[in-house]
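Example for tutorial group B:
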């Protein structure tokens, strides 16, 4: 049944008059009368009866009118939502990101962005760098946020969001509390607690170790920086984590890691499949997140430096 027929029934029920309802709907009385008759025949019930010069709902009509009004409200809501979809004001955005970047950049940003874009549903899941790339290829996520690969797939669009460095975190017994970074050569004399190879940042650290020809003495490879911090606080070695990780314990010392005087750094990026272009609201999300990351970088490093020599990418 055409939704306009239900609208005609609701208008006649509201105004108790075919004439007034026809005027409201910009129809002829005969056309609206035919709609009401067709609806009665379709349901097999009488909807109206005479009440002097007006009409009133039959008991069956009374029972039906509430549900018809609900149907019309749902149809209006669907049309509004469809209009928002056409204007990219509504939709779904599935995002995969590594847990350290989620923890560092997304808690406050995501809440404010969703508040400003109420028609967009965002679904967030964490994962490692290689795993995220596979989920992107499979179409399980629309967008990933992770370390920038050195050789992205040709089908991937990559937008730089910011840059991270590395921190060495340990008890003062292992790591002197000095204002300067710790050199890789100094660091690698200690037992090392590091993230496992599901994390793209681990590949960057391994690449820095190869540059000085010194393999790390690995004590633990973990999934979470907080597990590494707990092990470091227990005196088991030096945790090596991206600078996105936050050290809560006051017992631990945290120092940047350098190679020949320059910080070891890597870019983070947003990436999506060119074969499935992001909708406009996805591009808005990436642009706003990039601005948020840059603002956080400026706050953490008020003296913004030029790109350093030991800026490393990962595969």
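The residue assignment follows.
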């Amino acid at each position: 049944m055409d939704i306009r027929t239900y609208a005609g029934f609701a208008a006649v029920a509201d105004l108790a008059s075919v004439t007034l309802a026809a005027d409201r709907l910009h129809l002829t009385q005969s056309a609206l009368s035919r709609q009401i008759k067709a609806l009665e025949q379709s349901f097999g019930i009488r909807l109206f009866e005479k009440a002097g010069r007006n009409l009133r709902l039959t008991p069956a009509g009374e029972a039906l009118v509430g549900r018809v009004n609900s149907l019309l409200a749902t149809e209006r809501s669907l049309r509004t939502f469809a209009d928002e979809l056409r204007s990219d004001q509504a939709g779904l955005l599935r995002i995969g990101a590594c847990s350290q970047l989620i923890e560092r950049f997304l808690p406050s940003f995501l809440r404010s962005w969703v508040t400003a874009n109420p028609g967009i549903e965002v679904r967030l899941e964490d994962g490692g760098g290689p795993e995220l790339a596979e989920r992107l290829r499979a179409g399980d996520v629309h967008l990933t946020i992770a370390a920038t690969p050195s050789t992205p797939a040709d089908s991937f669009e990559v937008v730089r969001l910011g840059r991270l460095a590395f921190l060495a975190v340990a008890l003062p017994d292992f790591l002197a509390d000095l204002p300067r970074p710790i050199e890789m050569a100094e660091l690698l004399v200690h037992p090392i607690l590091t993230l496992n190879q599901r994390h793209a940042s681990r590949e960057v650290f391994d690449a820095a170790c190869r540059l000085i020809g010194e393999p790390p003495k690995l004590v633990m490879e973990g999934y979470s920086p907080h597990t590494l911090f707990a092990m470091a606080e227990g005196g088991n070695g030096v945790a090596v984590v991206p600078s996105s990780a936050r050290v809560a314990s006051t017992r631990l010392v945290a120092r940047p890691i350098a190679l020949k005087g320059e910080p070891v750094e890597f870019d983070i990026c947003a990436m999506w499949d060119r074969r499935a272009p992001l909708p406009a609201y996805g591009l808005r999300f990436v642009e706003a997140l990039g601005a948020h990351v840059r603002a956080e970088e400026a706050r953490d490093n008020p003296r913004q430096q030029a790109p350093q020599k030991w800026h490393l990418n990962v595969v």
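The radius of gyration is 31 Å. Compare this with the pattern of hydrophobic and polar residues in the output above.
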